[in-house]
Amino acid sequence: MGFFSFIQEIAMDLGTANTIIISDDKIVVDEPSVVALDRRTDKMIAVGEKAKLMYEKEHQGIRTIRPLRDGVIADFTACEQMMRGLIKMVHTGSRFFTPSLRMVIGVPSGSTEVELRAVRDSAEHADGRDVYLIFEPMAAAIGIGLDVEAPEGNMIVDIGGGTTEIAVISLGGIVSNNSIKVAGDDLTADIQDYMSRQHNVKVSERMAERIKINVGSALTDLGEEAPEDYVVHGPNKITALPMMVPVCYQEIAHCLDRTIARIETAVLNALENTPPELYADIVHNGIYLTGGGALLRGLARRLSDKINIEFHIAEDPLHCVAKGAGIALNNVDRFSFLMR
After folding, report:
1. Cα-based torsion angle of the residue sequence 95, 19, 75, 188 in order, rounded to the nearest 10 degrees
2. How many Cβ atoms sit within 10 Å of the Cβ of residue 113?
3. What is the tens place of the pLDDT at every residue in 203-241?
4. CATH 3.30.420.40, domain 146-182+260-314, yes or no
5. Would you give the DSSP letter of residue 272?
6. Which band of pLDDT confidence, cut at 50, 70 and 90, is reported for residue 8?
7. Does residue 46 contact residue 54 with C-beta atoms inside 8 Å?
8. Alpha-carbon separation of residue 13 from 35, 105, 257, 304, 324 (angstroms)
9. Reported pTM
10. Cα distance between residue 329 and residue 311, in whole Å
């Protein structure tokens, strides 16, 4: 292989909230899916964590963008720039040339052909030479360590930032799936709306995210797992005077209830469309929760009580899709479910 034909292999979980890149079977990039651009030149100023620090704090000369919304690309140019910036973090070789990339990218299982084409085009414009796509529930199942090619039913519920992916997997394919645009971003928006209505305090998207992390809950009774109240600082939405509001997990559980109920309904709909033999496997094996939403306190218990099937939180749920994409990258000739 010649010097200038160097090919680097990477696997990417291109998420609404975070983008994770795996190279040589190691997580080398785990950054927020945010890019900061100069308004006049459209040149990239920062990407990932550095861009997130600017988010909702920028002046008129800078615009910070989350290029993905609801699991799909909302701003094609910004997404391409973000991907380029994050991929540059991987390159450790010569600065005189950029290697061609062989890539496996996780995409929502409910993506249309147009949305899949947008991801593929963005990857190719960011120096991707061979680009493969894998549906996120399939990648998550592989990342958990399940044998997706076995004649056995397994159900994955992957709750990300923009979408919740629910899929029944057997024999290397998705038998039934339900992809809904209800996920972590909706929980964050619920908290913003609740704080405004209930406490008359304006909170940013980032503050609502911190509330979700510190006192977010799917249940009003967590017992010994209950977190301490979280103190929120913000302006009164009428007087603009500063406010300090302690928030407890029970009130956040109430404000998230409606959105979590929509996820419950989506899981039940997917089970309704599952063949009886695979349904029996799922009852026996349980259902696996992955994605950032799996970390919401009490969610697994609430879903188990509602659906009467045991829900298991995957080990390292945030990285399951990326790890599965990495394993798929090493088996592109074997896995027929990869899309080119």
Report:
1. -150
2. 7
3. 999 999 999 999 999 999 999 989 999 999 999 999 999
4. yes
5. H
6. confident
7. yes
8. 16, 6, 28, 27, 9
9. 0.91
10. 28
pLDDT category, 126, cuts 50, 70, 90? Answer: confident
The domain locations on the chain are 3-139+322-329, 146-182+260-314, 184-255
Question: How would you list the strands of the sheet with 62-65, edge to edge?
Answer: 44-47, 35-38, 62-65
Which amino acid, residue 305? Answer: D
Residue 2 pLDDT greater than 50, yes or no: no
Among 3.10.290.10, 3.40.50.410, 3.90.640.10, 3.90.1150.10, name the CATH number for the domain at 184-255: 3.90.640.10
For residue 157, the cross-strand partners are: 166, 289
Q: Does domain 3-139+322-329 have CATH number 3.30.420.40?
A: yes
Helix axis angle for 249-272 and 299-307, nearest 10°, is 40
Residue bearing tokens 């899929």: 167
111: exposed, middle or buried (Cβ count in 10 Å: 0-12, 13-18, 19+): buried
State the average pLDDT over residues 292-321. 96
Instruction: With a cut of 60, say whether residue 52 has pLDDT above it.
Output: yes
Please name the residues in contact with 93: beta carbons below 8 A apart, sequence gap of 6 or more: 6, 99
Return d(Cα 204, Cα 284) in angstroms, integer: 43
Note whether 146-182+260-314 and 184-255 share their fold.
no
